[in-house]
Amino acid sequence: MSIxxxxxxxxxxxxxxxxxxxxxWGAANLASFDEWAxxxxxxxxxxxxxxxxxxxxxxxxxxxxxxxxxxxxxxxxFAVPYAxxxxxxxxxxxxxxxTLARERGYLTIADFARDIFGNRTLELCVALTGVFAALPYxxxxxxxxxxxxxxxxxxxxxxxxxATLIVxxxxxxxxxxxxxxxxxxxxxxxxxxxxxVTVIAAIIxxxxxxxxxxxxxxxxxxxxAARPVPGHIxxxxxxxxxxxxxxxxxxxxxFLYPHSITSLLAARNVDVVKRNAVLLPLYSLLLGFLALLGxxxxxxxxxxxxxxxxxxxxxxxxxxxxxGIADAAxxxxxxxxxxxxxxxxxxxxxxxxxxxxxxTRPDGELRSAKMITVVFCAAALIPALLIHAQYTIxxxxxxxxxxxxxxxxxIAGLFKLRIDPRxxxxxxxxxxxxxxxxxxxxxxTALFTIHIAAMTLPGAVSLYALxxxxxxxxxxxxxxxxxxxx
Length: 486
Known about the structure:
Blueprint lengths: L2 H19 L11 H6 L6 H12 L2 H14 L6 H26 L4 H9 L2 H30 L6 H4 L1 H19 L2 H28 L3 H14 L13 H15 L3 H8 L4 H10 L1 H19 L9 H9 L2 H38 L4 H18 L1 H6 L6 H11 L3 H8 L6 H21 L5 E6 L2 E6 H20 L6
């Protein structure tokens, strides 16, 4: 076994042990749903910062964004403003949601929909949205891990990367089942430390080896331009709307995902949420540096699948032992958010879908959530292994496009707008139908081009679907508003 493989396996084994140890953290009563699913809603600023960072900065950050920059150039940097835009939204809207959730005991965003609108159908729609949006995002974590495993050499190439993934996610499911949200919260301390060490080293060593940033951009620009499908070192005007729409659409969905809501609701008080909205942009700086590694890979003359370029950079410019640390950072950076995503989706399924069709007692609801967490870890393997997208970032973007279907409900509920829930359900259905139609007709990509007369307008599927959703909600509400009691 190679040195990088030994180090990667050792670190993954260590965090797996941490995942099981987390069940004893804080003398938790894990027979309680709140304790298992939300850490007892007692996490302070530091723990929440690591948990939210571990939740939001994933294999998407470490592999998918640099891969898109490697393939397309400047367009891939939309992720930096998207992450920056999201935090003021947290400060303005999610703090208000957190306060309502604490006052009324919400476990999920579907609880919020049921409480505010009093409509079980809308609750079910919101829950299903979160469940299905989480699957491609978990699949992205799987693909990130597989990119690392495939490059570690024997015995991974002998056993097969798919078998290795199954083992890794079996361990993930086991410690998540045992420890709940405390497992990823504790492991996030290790994960974020690994990522910061790796990124700081990468932005010092790799540019120096390539002659500095000036030389990197000068060398990469003609390579991008000479490709059969040209990339751009600077964003061309024709892609400006697409860039902006990807940033806005992604920002609107980021904190509505079930894993984001789960991490937010675990905070001790609203001040913890506010402090993290101020502190988490530090991760956006990290994201910008990681995105630049895509340009470094172009300048370095690397020819590989986009998802592989970051592991190749580490193996080329670092000693084997540090390449192992970097590989472990990617794997752990996938395991932590995958655990939170599985918990968040399981909470929705147990609390807002099964509850619709059964009279499960609270202890039975917890058992159901634990079992569903295991099922979700297994189910995420299906899109990861069967859907072949050119850029893995499309898994996250498609998940985000699904998630924005509940934005009108969330805004209307948060500000107590008297919108007929039937209008919100119909808008949700139309928005999702538009999302699926655009994604499937475009080869599982989240960029869709609208043709208006002689003009073409490439933009994010999420934004186009949201516009259709809002129009349908508005028209339907106007038609039905006379039926709404004063």
